[in-house]
User: Fold this.
Amino acid sequence: MAEKFEIDLKVIIMAVALVIIAAVGSAYVTFLVFSRSSVEVAAVGQEEPDKGQFGPVHQVGEFTVNLMVPQGFSPRFVRTGLVVEVTDKKCIAELARRDPQVRDAVISILRTKTQEDISGAAGMEKLRQELGRAISGLLSEGSIANVYFTELVVQ
Assistant:
């Protein structure tokens, strides 16, 4: 009986050892996979602006603007709120001082758009870039880092 107990104890110890070895091996492989992914993400982060950093922002305001529609079609409009992120804190005061020019630039751009121009992710991104360039052109120092839509309704 003692001999059978020794064999059962050896089998149990070997099974536990195999489970421990498998768990350590699995943890090591997981570590390698995730550490490689974080290195790739860090490399991508070096090419693009750091998403974790958020610069100074300026509330441009809310806009309700008629969209361009073909003759004979019912009018369409867009209602949006805009906030811009700037590269330099000094831009905030200049944007406040140039508020009428900034609002005019935004309205002028929005009035040239059709519903199809601003629909979908690609249209929104194109509009975001166009607004950013137009507002940056008004600044003597710094530029617009991002344009954020705080609301957007097209009707």
Remarks:
- Confidence is low (pLDDT under 50) at residues 37-49.
- The first helix runs from residue 2 to 47.
